[in-house]
Every structure is written in structure tokens, then in C-alpha cells.
Amino acid sequence: MLDELIAQLKALRLYGMAQTLAELAANPTGQSEFAAPWLQRLIEAERADRQARTLRYQMTAARFPIHRDLATFDVQESPVAEPHLRTLASAEFTRTAHNLIFVGGTGTGKSHLAIALGIAAIHAGKRVRFFNAVDLVNHLEREKQLGKAGTLARHLAQIDAVILDELGYLPFSSAGGALLFHLCSQLYEKTALI
Questions:
Q1: What is the DSSP code string of 73-136?
Q2: How large is the C-alpha radius of gyration of the chain?
Q3: Does the pLDDT value for residue 87 go beyond 80?
Q4: Rounded distance, CA 77 to CA 75, Å?
């Protein structure tokens, strides 16, 4: 039991605590056996707190404009079957950097579904970033003007999924379109695009 607790402390990078517990275990007074249940609860609390902080950070870093989830997605109005949605919600497509494209008219739930899948991916431990397509193109153009072209692409190549919303609705310059195409080609087979 104590060896397992020591290993858990080391996994959490709490090396001082692991060393102290090892010293207590070597001491025949029995203090370590008394401390073991408390220590196990503290380790579980630390893990839960770290997981919650990571989730909060990833949700903020994703920059979703609004919170949407699959629980509020109307499956009956969608051509996507519920079993297929569950598969997508597992975020397995990010492992192989497969892209998802949602096509449909205004109000058909494309943005809702993309954000919901992004949130599900974060809950599965993935890193996600949301962009409105025009804002992304503007960012790429500014980056190029400042002589820092490629900075965003290098950053996004480390992300598991990038959501591009309203890609087909708003026009942008041909230079902006070329920058967006170049970004997508740099992310190919590295980052899943939705």
C-alpha cells in the first residue's frame, strides 16, 4: 500500500512528500500506516483539483464564443446519427488528425455541433482552439505584416483540433484566402480541423 502511495506521489511530482513517506515507512512506529488513508484522500483531492484546473484552462484557451454541448444538440433535427455523434464525441478523430466538415444552411446546428465536439474533446484531454474564419484570416494578415508569418501555424500544430467557424459565409481577400489555405496545408495530418 505504501509503495503504491509513494509511486502516486512521484507521479504527481510531489517528491518531497514521497521521500518523507518512504522514511516514515522505514520507521517501525506505525505512523505511516495511520497516515496512509489520509494520504490517499489527499492524493485523490490533488488529482481532482489538477484535472479541474486543467479543464478550466483548456476551456479558456479554446476561446469558444459560447458554451454548447451535445446534451443540448437536437439530434432529431440533424442528419448525423446519434451513434456517429457519440463516436465523434470521443475525439478519436484527433488522434489521426482527421478533419470534419459540416455543411448546411443557416440555423442547422453546424456551429453548435462544432463547439460541442470541441468541448467534448477538451473533456477527453485534448487541446482545442476555436476561430471565426474572418478573425483568423485577419490574424494571419497581421502576422504577415509584422514579419512573423508562421508563428500561429507553429502554435496550432501543437493543438489537437482547430475549429474554423463560418468558413463559407464571409468573403475575404484572395491574399487572406491564400494565407488560410497555407495554414490549413501546414496543419494537414498534424491537427484535426473542424
A1: S-GGGSSS-HHHHHHHHTTHHHHTT--------TTSSHHHHHHHHHHHHHHTT--EEEEEHHHH
A2: 23
A3: yes
A4: 5
Q: Please say if the pLDDT value at position 121 is more than 90.
A: yes
Amino acid 62: pLDDT: 97
Residue pointed to by grid coordinates 442528419 = 79
Grid cell digits, residue 19:
521521500
Instruction: Name the average pLDDT for the chain.
Output: 89
State the DSSP H helix or E strand holding residue 192, giving kind and residue range, or none if neither. Answer: strand 192-193
Q: Which cell numbers in the block locate residue 42?
A: 489527499
Cα torsion 108, 64, 141, 171 to 10°: value is: 10
**What confidence category does residue 17 fall into, taking pLDDT thresholds of 50, 70 and 90?**
confident
Rounded distance between C-alpha atoms, residue 28 and residue 151, angstroms: 58
| Cβ count near 117 (within 10 Å) | 28
Grid cell for residue 194: 473542424
43: DSSP letter: H
Q: Is 55 exposed, middle or buried (0-12, 13-18, 19+ CB in 10 A)?
A: middle
Query: Would you call 162 exposed, middle or buried from its count of C-beta atoms within 10 A (0-12, 13-18, 19+)?
Result: buried
Cell match 463560418: residue?
A: 166
The residue type found at 135 is: D
